[in-house]
Amino acid sequence: MELILVLNQYPMLFLTFAVLLGLVVGSFLNVVILRMPPLLEYHWKKDFFEFTEQKFSEEKPPSMAYSRSYCPKCKQQLLARHNIPLLGYLFLRGKCGFCQSSISMRYPFIELLTGLLTGLMAYLYGAELHFIAAILLLWFLIVITWIDLDTYLIPDQLSLSLLWLGLFFSLFEFSISPTVAIIGALVGYLSLWMVFQVFKVLTGKEGMGYGDFKLLAAGGAWLGFEPLIIVLLLSSISGLLVAVMQMLLKKSQTKIPFGPYLSIGILVTYLVGDSLMQYLFAV
């Protein structure tokens, strides 16, 4: 409690702490984004082989928490100074310290994005429980966005955990009520499920994955059912803009992940949804 009082008395100190926390967490989120899909695939294969009573000898991929970071090209374990968020990338000048292979700009970008947005949450909500809720939502959405971009997959471990967190935080005064959260989760899931079914009947194709349904259900658990209109509107607009840009750059894709655009819609609506609702639906 004393620490919370100190942080509330010195908002710049709390803001600095939040940005640094976000940078460190962003570094870990990079690991989760990179390692979670192979781990999930490994366990799916293992369960299948065990179910069919076949021998399974595939080597387990590195864990998200306990395995040391290493260069994907030369496989050398990184030194501690290489893993310092942002500074490590600058120190290495964007190249592996061992084999000089280029390091993707995505890693420092995710660290910087997580740090800045975590700082924004600290500025908006202060050293309160609302801040904890907001940064958890943010961190989950960042991981979901990049995993979906890489694999066209939204793991249930992420979307369902986010849904339960939304229901949990609905128990506190700063959030929506549990009733509204439950209805929001139901409306979120069923709205995309119905669109999916109609599209499938009309075209014979599946227009989106079930992970998108679960992600919007999680958004409903955090926001309630009415703001989901804003989420879908923002998601559709952002997705359309990216699709148009890809067409202009002649980089068309046969598959377009919808999770990143849903994540943008959920986060923006969480932050400024009330203002957008008043602006769009003012009587």
From TrEMBL:
The keyword Metal-binding does not apply. It catalyses: Typically cleaves a -Gly-|-Phe- bond to release an N-terminal, basic peptide of 5-8 residues from type IV prepilin, and then N-methylates the new N-terminal amino group, the methyl donor being S-adenosyl-L-methionine. Its EC number is 2.1.1.-, 3.4.23.43. GO terms for cellular component: plasma membrane. It is a multi-pass membrane protein. The chain crosses the membrane at residues 12-34, 107-125, 131-149, 161-190, 228-249, 261-281. GO terms for molecular function: aspartic-type endopeptidase activity; methyltransferase activity. It holds the Pfam family A24_N_bact. It is found in: Cell inner membrane; Cell membrane. Residues 20-123 form the Prepilin peptidase A24 N-terminal domain. The keyword Transferase applies. Residues 135-244 form the Prepilin type IV endopeptidase peptidase domain. One of its GO terms (biological process) is methylation. Gene3D superfamilies: 1.20.120.1220. Its main location: membrane. Keywords: Cell inner membrane, Cell membrane, Hydrolase, Membrane, Methyltransferase, Multifunctional enzyme, Protease, S-adenosyl-L-methionine, Transferase, Transmembrane, Transmembrane helix. Plays an essential role in type IV pili and type II pseudopili formation by proteolytically removing the leader sequence from substrate proteins and subsequently monomethylating the alpha-amino group of the newly exposed N-terminal phenylalanine. Belongs to the peptidase A24 family. PANTHER family: PREPILIN LEADER PEPTIDASE_N-METHYLTRANSFERASE-RELATED, TYPE 4 PREPILIN-LIKE PROTEINS LEADER PEPTIDE-PROCESSING ENZYME. This is Prepilin leader peptidase/N-methyltransferase.
